[in-house]
Write a structure and sequence with these properties.
With 390 residues, this protein is of the alpha+beta class. It has eleven helices and 22 strands.
Amino acid sequence: MELSHGFKQTDIGLLPNDWSVSQLGDLAKVHDGTHQTPRYVLDGVPFYSVEHVTRRDFRDTKFISVDEHKFLTRKYKMQKGDILMTRIGSIGDCCLIDWEVDASFYVSLALLKIHGAHAPYVAHYSNSTVFKQEVELHSLPSAIPRKINLGPISEIRIAIPPEIEQRAIATALSDVDALICGLEKLITKKHDLKQAAMQQLLTGQIRLPGFSEEWVNKALGDITNIKTGSRNNEDKVEDGFYPFFVRSAHVERINSYSHECEAILVPGEGQIGEIFHYINGRFDVHQRVYAITQFVEGVSGKYIHLYMSQHFGAWAMQNTVKATVDSLRLPTFQTFQVQLPPTIEEQAAIAQMLSDLDAELLAIELRLSKTRELKQGMMQELLTGRTRLV
């Protein structure tokens, strides 16, 4: 095999000539947590376990007494700059302790006290494909649940750049992590804003400017036509010409169409009250999916779609038929009460405002997805030395 200029072959792949390969035990002291389930108290010292590392959330914990914490940490203590690694059940997930910490932890975690490398670099490297492969290689092959012992953890091999490059790589990846975290928080905020807006706008608690007439209640069966489709799952065609609505959130394709209109599609069984599709065009429908069509004059299909997505679920669960799976019958749809603004202009305005919020949320989610892809690409380049920052 011909080597790229400036690279050498190592046990974990091609690396730059000025990089080295070290075992984790040469870079860190490796400890595990208490092997005994502690006695929990209502308030005291936080006690960490696997789910806190995998969720990256250390706020909701159980607590142990101060005295028990002092006993468990008499030989070594978790500190800022250490790394927690999952080793039972979920294995190889690592989290840098980058805050001032006073906590104990369970045997399902390993504590890595880094001394021979830049700890944030090691934490980022733990997300690499090579590190995950090393964890699998050193884990117990037949253990249930999955497990990796302390000795094999120490034998995990890691690519080590010069220290200045370790710090540069960690800074670059941490900057992307901060951007991802910010986008996740923004999505949560925008989602909460959308839910509040739906609750207020779809009940008339808040009125848009220019509208003041009294709302009315209408039964869904009085303002629409409701019936199930006639197709079966086996009728679907990969890359078919038209959308085919089945009993799932995923829309299949088909080469036929039974409808060419505005419609709301709701499965009659399965995920009751959770799936609501909207379409205006040609489509076909599964025999256990309800097609809501033929909206009477003065009624907006988009508004009805939004109203059902907010309120129909609770009604459906109250009226579900208990059989092999939960299912809905036609009267449940026909008798569902819709709070309706009296003019189609107000309905359309509400639908447009909520659609704008949806579009904004979707744009941020797309940006988050692309940023995550960017980070994966950066890791592949930076953690193998293909791209050098120094």
